[in-house]
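Anyone? Bumping this.
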Amino acid sequence: MYDIKALYEAESVQHAVQLLQEHPEAQILAGGSDVLVQVREGRRAGVELVSIYMLDELRGVSIDDEENIRIGSLTSFSHITNDPIIQKYINVLGEAVDMVGGPQIRAIGTIGGNTCNGVTSADSASTLMAWEAVMEVTGPEGVRRVPIKDWYIKAKVVDLKPGELQTAILIPKESYDRCFGHYIKYSMRNALDIATTGCSVNVRLSEDKKTFERVRIGYGVAAPIPVRAYTAEEFLNGKEITEENIKKFAETVLEDINPRDSWRAGKALRKHISVVMAERALRESISLAGGVVNG
Amino acid sequence: MSKKYIGQAVTRHDAHDKAMGRIKYTDDMCDKGALVIRVLHSTVANGIVKKIDTAEAEKVPGVVRVFTCFDLKEKHYFPTAGHPWSTDPHHQDICDRLIMTDRPLFYGDDIGAVVAEDEVAASQALRILEKSVEYEELPFVLDAQEAMEEGAPLLHENYPNNVLAHTEIHMGSVEEAIKEPGLTKVEGWYETQPVQHCHIENFICYAYGEGDRTVVVSSTQIPHIVRRVIGQATGMDWGKFRVIKPYVGGGFGNKQDVLYEPLTAWISIQLGGRLVKLDVPREETFICNRIRHAIRYHITSWMRPDGSFAARTFKAWCNNGAYSSHGHAIAAKGLNAFPQLYPCDNIDGETWTVYTNRSVAGAMRGYGMPQASYAFECHAEDCARAMKMDPLEFRRKNLMPVGYYHAFSKNELYSDTFNQCFDKGAEIIGYYDKVRKYANQTGDIRRGIAVSTFWYNTAVYPIALETSSCRIVMNQDGSVQFQLGETEIGQGADTAAAQMIADTLGIPFDMVHPVSCQDTDVTPFGTGVYASRGTYTLGFSIRQTALLLKEKVLEAAHQFTRMPVYNLDLVDGIIVRTTDGRELMTIGELALAKLYTTDGSQHLTAESTYQIKSNAYSFGCCFAEVEVDIPMCRVRLLNIVNVHDCGQVINPILASGQVHGGQSMGIGYALSEKLLWDEKTGRPLNNNLLDYKMSSFMDHPRLVADFVENYEPTSAYGTKGLGEPPACPVAPAIRNAIGQATGLYINELPLSPHTLFREFTDAGLINDPWAEENK
Amino acid sequence: MDKQYKVVHCTINGKKVERIVDVRASLTDMLRNDFRLTSVKKGCEVGECGACTVIIDGEGFNSCIYLAVWAEGKEIWTLEGLIGPGGELSDIQQAFIDEGAIQCGFCTPGFIMTSWEIVNSGKEYTDDELRKALSGHLCRCTGYENIFRAVKKTMLRHLGKFEEAEKVNSQGITEYPEPMPFK
């Protein structure tokens, strides 16, 4: 039994917006794998909740008129992993969310919840950063879109205004076209864990597969919010695929990341692993894109 | 006695009901109307409770009562260890706990309790109450050796320097022995970490009044001991309590302590016998029940050129947490084992058990031997390397020899157990090929293989009372029920016992029914299950009682067959005339006839107690094969093989299950598990199943278990302990395998990425050009 | 504030039911207390141990972090639902018994539910996939070994691979190829 003061069940997105306006103190409840745990812990005890879990209109993956991949915010991790559109265009996202917790958590956990809680360790976040996702937000003023680089404001805070909820995550065609990526989750055990740090890399190679046309790299737990390592990306864009460039790229990520010391892991370990992951995720991405490393 | 069922992989008696989900554990039995208890825990690591304002908490709708440490009018200090009582006051466990205390000694100590109509009201009141406690905070200490220093905070007045106990052993003269020329000195510090049992059913109990007594239903390994301790804790006669043990969802030693039964019984009494339930949340199970002792070791050996030991010293500091629980027994077991595993004429050993302001350490699978085995077997590996000997050959040369006799316990090594286990394990895993193949590797990803052994003895003779009692009751159809004080907690004790009874009495296995749930009003006295004693100790009373019953059965058979008793036998449910093998009547016909006869009607039953005055070594080994990803600071366990000599295997499938469970616990101990406290506040950091890393399904390779069966001559059925031994050799085997792969032999657990990163960096295996600036 | 209740209609173990539930209740609370389906176990109440796993619309969920009101319109299966009218066990339950996959039994109901989902999926899982599919459950007794064997054998039998199923033995030493540079 949860210490919930009141539960308001939304029957549509518009109804959810209305409920959030009527109950400004209320917290949005999607799958609940974070919120309910926090209620039990006491951190959110006595909370008012607006449950959007029953809104099936927010579930599913499609390609919209603008050729964006559109992922409904309530789509569960397991459904993302098994979705043919995801598997065809952005398989790395399916792989990344397939590393969240265990299967039962992946059945209840939603990609919207994973990005709205503003947590840096979210397994989807580094990949969505690296693929320049766009958040679709619906509120009293209608629908607006927020590029993911502007989404995370600070730890556990995202760009959601009163009365708003995230309704979809979009991956623009320019972002996924001819791109191949790989995610590495670094954690203390192989299941039922949160990322100590995580790294998602994707590449678009030149026609002859010898040059990096565009490289993007996103991190979780390398800073208070998910981040890109732009300096490393800029270094590599347009460069040839060589051992030397790969190594240099990996070390350059340190210019942009700033992991901290905590009892969960030391800063030095996180930095070290970040560099190793950058190199390995890049190599795997090159291989997926059909590239080979020269010299 | 035929061996028709002993040694067979019969299905455990409760498997069917467990697979159906209809087995009742404690919570499943409790009436829904029970009031809910939540315990108020200290949020300081050391202090004095000055005041608790209960007014606001009492106003929460649904709250029935709030109790605080100040409501405890009579202070009855009590022990909690699941040890047999001793009539010698000097041999009794330390009484240092109260149901609630105003002098909390660790973060999580029990200072009050809320009783409410439902869990939400209870948790609301608890949160309010936590904020209404006024403490005088005192300095605290978390490390055992720091706690022994002058000026360290003192936890218990009668224990200067926080030393609960200190014992020594001396053999020969180390001082003289090390004068021998040509010796090689090997010295090491070995550090083990605190971990928790993590049985999937948390501790839970409930209590209610019945007549002028209180009934307590508890998820425990030790119902009869629980009854005694509730009596001690409440200052009431022991017989005023009745303790019932339903099916238990795992114990591993945590439930070999008295946990919250006294508090729950006391609250029920305060409320006039109302039904109250205490279902301990997982977070509190981690820190407010018991944990495994963290023990620090220092071992030095002086080796002769031929690889034999000239002299050895051993020191251990055992972090006991805030209360005594099992006291010095766990540290003493390691000290006791040291001169036995690798015998040497000249030994100095000493060990301290030390109070600190951490969660209370108690019994946990292996009872100090996983820790000691880690130290012993890391050190043995280090000695072998120093002498440039093959680690396995080094062990064969120096381990306890066949015929070794230990005067105090009267244990004797009757068989060539160590070599037999090594040979079998080495063959299964392919040790000799792999150890050559993995020598001198370079590169980022390397493999290693290694072996480890351990020392273990079954049961607690002669340190404490060893007794077991059994009752067997025959039904009209010749089937029987039996009852034992040794509890079924998942290990399969009831099934092994039923196999013994079937063979000894001479009836089919499916006619033997365990009464699986102990009830101190009904069950014959027994101290419970611990020390891997179950199968060994219950065997004695079972055999004695089954033979008593058989005697009665054959006497009855004489009445109906006219044959002399000495010409009769009971074989698989048939009364047989031994002279010609003729089957005279079935046991069902006999039992029916004997009960309803108008000439000497008798209900065929037997009950007896057997006091055990022996003990048995139970040895074995573990081989581990690992792959180390050096840049990632990660270890993947590729293969693991344990081979054990537990004497006669009663049930191979259950025995393998015990080994797998121990291997699994050992894998977590080796690679990932560690309880953490904040150094600044003494607050526990990772007391939940997400942040505490017990190994998951994906962290295990296939687990291989095998046996060497040397019939144990002291045992009623040739068997000896197996519950705990499999957990003992795993961590050092993995440590030694990582050593073979990387050249780094790390003396600290767990061998997690945190530890490996530090060690790899220090050793230059990881050499980040940019690392210096990070320091 | 007054307590809030809601009528929930759902199908549990093949039977249509309706109950008035406190909106604060978890599905574990509802199944254990209102329907006395006590195979649903509480081990952590935060979705970490898997002991409370039930199948909802064909997928395994931790019922402890699932609100009872969300059961509206759902089809829910617990271990009790796998038993035939005459008490017959399903093959996966029987395999847990036969392979010695049950010790204390507390994690067993949840494990069997996930296993039931696996063996009825019609998919042949590799060993690694099988471990991953079962990784949402913690067990401290068995080291997962005999559970692995029970599920693998039953899966193979469901796929008609009876001979392969019999070859899944209890002494599984694995030979690994030379280490790959990155894993």
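Late reply, but here is one note on the structure posted above: DSSP finds six helices and five strands in chain C.
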